[in-house]
Amino acid sequence: MKKTLLLSLFASFGILASAQTDIANARTFGIGQTVTVTGIATNGSELGPIRYMQDATAGIAAYGSSLSGVSRGDSITVTGPLIEFSGLLEISPAGTVVNHGPAVNPPAALQIPITAAVEALESQLMQVDNVTFVQTGSFAGTSSTYQVTDGTNTMDVRVNASTNIAGTAIPTGPVTVYGALGQFNANYQLVPRDLNDIVSYIAPSEEINVLIDGVTYLNNSTYFIGNSASAAITIENSGSNPLTVTGATLAGANAGDFGHDIVTGSVAATSNNAYTLTYTASTTGSTFASIAIGSNDSDENPYTIYIEGVGTDNLATEPAANPSALTFPVIEAYAVGGQYTAGSGATNYLVLWKNGSAMTATPADGMSYLRGDIVGDARVAYVGAGTSFTPRGIIANQDYYFAVYAFNGSGGFENYLLTTPLEGNTSSLGEGIASYYTGIDKTAGTFVSDLNGLINPHTEVSYFLYKQTVMNEFEIKDTIGGQSYVTCAMSGEKLIINDPFDWSDAGYSREHTFSHSWMHTFPADTPEEPEYNDQHNLYPANLVQANIPRSNLPMDDIDSTVVFSYLGGSVGYANGQLAYEPRASHKGNAARAVMYMAVTYNFNLDGNVNSTKQSQEVLKDWHFADLPDNYEIARHEYIFNLQGNRNPFIDSTDYACYIDFDALAHIPTGCIVGIGEEYLDANLVVFPVPSNDVVYVQVNGTEITSYSVLDLNGRVVESASGKNLQVLTLHKENLGVGTYLINVETPLGQVQRKMIIQ
C-alpha cells in the first residue's frame, strides 16, 4: 500500500477557501492549501487509490479512498489539500469528490520526446515513441521501475503490480509507451495503466518536432527570447517519409520585430533542417508574436510557437496594478497561508515576508528571485503566477508581515510594480490546548494512568511517512538560491539540500529519541507498531554523524572522556556509563519526547528497557533548563493535527514533577523545580491567538492571583484580584475586537503577553 496516512491529515489546512479554479492555477498554490478543481480522470482503479486528472490547462494527481468509484474518462470535481509525495504534487486526501460521469471528449495522449518531460506536464497523459526497454525478461509481480531509451536518453517507466502488465514479458523491440507523467524524487516517470499502453512502435508517415536553441518546444507552447538577436530553430522529422515544410507565418502585436528564414522544403525521414529566428526590438516593454510552421504533418499543421521578447529598455512591461484583497485563510501555530486578488496586466507575483516588523525592502527590476532569497530585510516567500502562498518556516507566537508585488518578465528582464505593493500582516497561533486536559488532576493518585488514557488512542501515522508529513510540511526550511535546508536535531548541523528531499541523498534518518531498541515490541517494525511510528518521538538526524553514534545509548551530560563528537552532539562517559549528549538547545525537546513515550506506552526508565538505564533526573533537569520554545510549540501543534494527541510535558511543564518515570508512579508532593520567576514567561500560555471568541490564559506550575487587560492606549478594560485560578477565561463580548496586553500576577511574580481578538 502506498500510504497509511489517515484522512485526518492536514484537516486544519482545509480552512483555506477552496473556490473552483483551473488545474494550472491550483498547482501554484502552497503545500497544505485546499483546492477545488474539475478535470477528466485518465485512469481508473487499475492504479489503486490514485487518479491522474487534467483539464485544458494542466494535470494533477488526486489520492484517496473517495476516488474508488471514478473510472477512466470520468469528469470529476475534487476538493482537498495539496501535498508533495516524493516530488509528485497531489490533492491528498481527496475529501469531496463529485463524479459527473463520462466526459464527452476525454484527453488524447500528448506526444513528447523523452527530454520534454518537465514539471509543467506532470500528471498529464503522455506518449513516447520509438523507444526500447533497457531491461529484458519479464515485468516483476511487484511494483517496479524500468527504463526506456531513445538511443541517447533514458526515462523511467513505473509498472504497478495492480495492473495486468505485471508478470508479462518485456517487449524487446521499439515500442510506444502511454501513461500518466508521474514523478518520484528527481525523476519523471511514465505510469502505464494496462497492456494497451505498451505497444509496438509504428513510425508515422511524417512527424514534425521543433527545437529552439536545442530545446524541444511543444505545439502551442511559449518561447521567451528575451533581448536575444537570434535563436536557432531546428525542425525534426521522426516519420518514415519526408516531411514537407510549406513555410512559416509570423503574427501578433509585434510580429514586425521578428524574422525567419524558413522556406518551403523537405526534411528527410529521421533527419532535421536548421533555420534562424531573428529579433530586433522596436519599442519598450514586452513584445509578443507567434510563428506558425506549416507542413504535411497530419495532426500538427500548423505547428505554432508563441514568442515573448523584451523591448529596447531590456525590461518586460510593468503591470498596471498590484494585487488586492490580501487575506490569511490559514493561520496556525505552524503555518500561515495567504491569498490575494490578481492585479491588472500582471502575469507573476513576488511575495516578501518578514518576522517581527514591517519590512523596508523592495525588489529590484531586472533581478530574478527564488523562494528563500534574501531581499534587504525580507525573504522571498513565493514567486509565480498563482494568487496564494504558504511560506515555510512558520513558528508559533510570531508576527509576520508580507508584501506582494506584481511583475512581468523572467530571466533578468523582470519589471516589478514597485509603488503601493499589497501589504498585510498576521500572527501565528500559540498552544491550542483548549479543553484537552479537562478532568486531569496532577495531584490525583490516578494522574499517570489518566494521562495515558487521555493520550490514547490516537491516529497512527506511519514512520515511513515522516518525510511526507513532518519533514516536507514543517522541518524543511528555505534558504537562498531556491534551495532548502534541514537541521539535524542532535548535532545542530544545517544541511543544504535540493528539493525534493530524499533521505539517502541527504544522508539523514528519522531518529527515535526514545530508542527503538528500548521499546517493548523491538525489533518489530513490519508491521509497524504504534510506538515505532509515533511522530512526537521522531526527529531528523544526520545518519553517520548523529544517529549511528547515538545508537541506543542513554542521554546524559558527559562528565568524563569524550570518545566522539560532531558539532553539538557527543558520545562519552557519564556516571560511569557510555552516553550521548545532544546539543544544548535540543536537550529539553529530547527529554519531553522520552517522557511522553514513557507515559504513552508504559515504558519505565528503571533499566528494564533492554538493560539501558536512562536517568529521569537528567531528563527533568534538561526539561526545566530548556523549556519549550516557539519552534517546539509549532512542531507540537503540527503533530497534534496529525495524530490527534498532545505531549502533556510541552503543554504543562510542571507535570514532570508529579511522575516517577522509573516506576511510572505518581508523586503526590510534586516539585517547584523550574517554575521560579525566571521561568514564568516560558510557562505563560495564551490561546488561541488571534481569537474570535474566548481567550484562555494559564501559567503552568502556578496559579493566577490577579490580572489586568490593557488596550494599546494603556487603558485598563478588565481586571480582577484575589483570585486563585488555574485557567483564566476572557470573553470577546466583554472586551471587544482589538489588540490587548494581559498582565498576570502569580505567587512567583508577574508576567505579560499580547493577545488579539478579531
Briefly say what this structure is.
This protein is mainly beta and about 750 residues long.
Structure, described:
- The protein is built from twelve helices and 49 strands.
- The protein is mainly beta and 758 residues long.
- The protein has six domains: 11-102, OB fold (Dihydrolipoamide Acetyltransferase, E2P) (Beta Barrel), CATH 2.40.50; 128-187 and 195-200, no CATH class; 208-310, Immunoglobulins (Immunoglobulin-like, Sandwich); 324-427, Sandwich (Immunoglobulin-like); 447-674, no CATH class; 683-757, Immunoglobulin-like (Sandwich), CATH 2.60.40.3080.
- Helix 3 (467-475) packs antiparallel against helix 9 (630-643) and helix 7 (584-601) crosses helix 8.
- The model is unreliable at 1-17 and 673-677 (pLDDT under 50).
The total number of structural domains is: 6
Query: How far do the termini sit from each other?
Result: 44 Å
Mind telling me the C-alpha Rg? 30 Å
How much of the sequence lies in strands comes to 35-45%
What kind of assembly state do the chains in view correspond to? Answer: single chain
Largest sheet: 6 strands, antiparallel
Q: Averaging pLDDT over every residue, what do you get?
A: 91
Shape: globular
In the predicted model, the low-confidence regions spanning at least 5 consecutive residues are: 1-17, 673-677
Helix segment tally = 12
Helical content (DSSP H or I, runs of 4+): 10-25%
Helix/strand class: mainly beta
Number of strands: 49
